[in-house]
Amino acid sequence: MKNVFIDGETGTTGLQVRERLLNHPHINIISIDPTKKRDESEKRRLMKDADVTVLCLPDEAAKESVVLAKEEGSRILDASSVHRVADGWSYGLPELDVTQREKIAKAQFVSNPGCYPTGVILLLKPLIEEGLLPANGDYAINAISGYSGGGNALIDRYEKEPNAPTYGVYGLNFAHKHLPELEKWSGLSKKPIFIPSVGNFRQGMLTFVPVELTDGMTASQLHAKLSETYSQETFISVNDYNVIDDAAAPFLTPHNIDNSNRVELSVFGSTDGKSCLLAAKFDNLGKGASGAAVQNLNIMLGFDETLAVEL
Question: Where in the sequence of the chain do the CATH 3.30.360.10 domains occur?
Fold first, then answer.
């Protein structure tokens, strides 16, 4: 058995990490007394006892906990956004490339990916790396998430207020905090335009990357590369070309994937062959947060990475 301390287990991500780990055959959860959750000495004690400390905290609080964990020599899996492009941290997307699982397994510090970047990186990185798409292209990325991605405040707004908006676009300063992560790990050399949005549903996410096809490139070639890249991955699947694999077809929706750690990738090409749409569908609380965290924990602790990742 391995001990895991979840610092911030009462937040949205922390609750779901805890719920998954309750079903894990090889992990024992150690919890802080709620009356001592701001007690530095108690946190230090638990971090010292833990094989891995999982941080499910707001960004500034995560920074403070990292200082304590480093001083106690604790291994850290940080679900906040503050270390996703930081030196000395391994990026917790096992499917990033063939070396990433080993990096995660050996790392003392692992940063859990952001929800929006997860879908975009899985779509763009292999295509840019292969030279099928330009790293310096002009990309406009759109995405929609269930309201649970906004944490407890947004959840309360949607579930307690009668007039919560059906749909809302945000990040309109074009400086969303996920942009550095998205740019770096996708292999982009030019900052994309990224427009996130929230819908009146609890869980689920879609990310979209429209692409102009030039220099003889075809949408079917992009589809073939994605299919090849993820053919052996447990949690990543690529739908058939130009096919919507959704119960709500002909609509592509963010639904019917709640509580799973799966990502469904799709490629849709125009009839004139000039443009296509790359799309990723997954659960913002699954592969976009808590499911990914448990997958990373398994790798860090030497377990089968599929254990307890889904509710």
Answer: 115-286
For residue 152, what pLDDT is reported?
87
The one catalytic residue in 6, 115, 280, 294 is 115
**Taking the CB of residue 238, how many other CB atoms lie within 10 A of it?**
22
Cα(65)–Cα(40) distance, integer angstroms: 9
Does CATH place domain 115-286 in 3.30.390.50? no
Distance, CA of 116 to CA of 264 (rounded, Å): 14
Whole-angstrom distance, CA of residue 108 vs CA of residue 85: 15
Q: d(Cα 246, Cα 256) in Å, to the nearest integer?
A: 8
Contact 203, 288 (CB under 8 A): no
89 vs 61, 76, 196, 237, CA distance in Å?
18, 10, 26, 27
Q: Look at residue 193 and give its three-state secondary structure.
A: strand
Q: Averaged in consecutive runs of 10 residues, what is the pLDDT profile of the chain (311 residues)?
A: 96 96 97 91 96 96 94 96 97 98 98 98 98 96 96 91 92 95 97 97 97 94 98 98 90 95 98 97 98 98 98 90
| Domain 2-113+288-301, CATH among 3.30.2010.10, 3.40.50.300, 2.60.120.200, 3.40.50.720 | 3.40.50.720
Amino acid 261: pLDDT: 98
**C-beta contacts of 294-297 below 8 A and 24+ residues apart:** 294/17, 294/20, 294/21, 294/24, 294/261, 295/94, 295/235, 295/261, 296/77, 296/92, 296/94, 296/104, 296/110, 296/112, 297/4, 297/21, 297/27, 297/52, 297/54, 297/77
Look up the pTM and report it: 0.96
- Cis (ω within 30 of 0) for the bond into 25? no
Residue 141, SS3 per DSSP: strand
Active site residue 276: no
pLDDT digits (tens, 9 = 90+) for 26-35: 999 999 999 9
Q: What whole-number distance in Å separates Cα of residue 278 and Cα of residue 33? A: 46
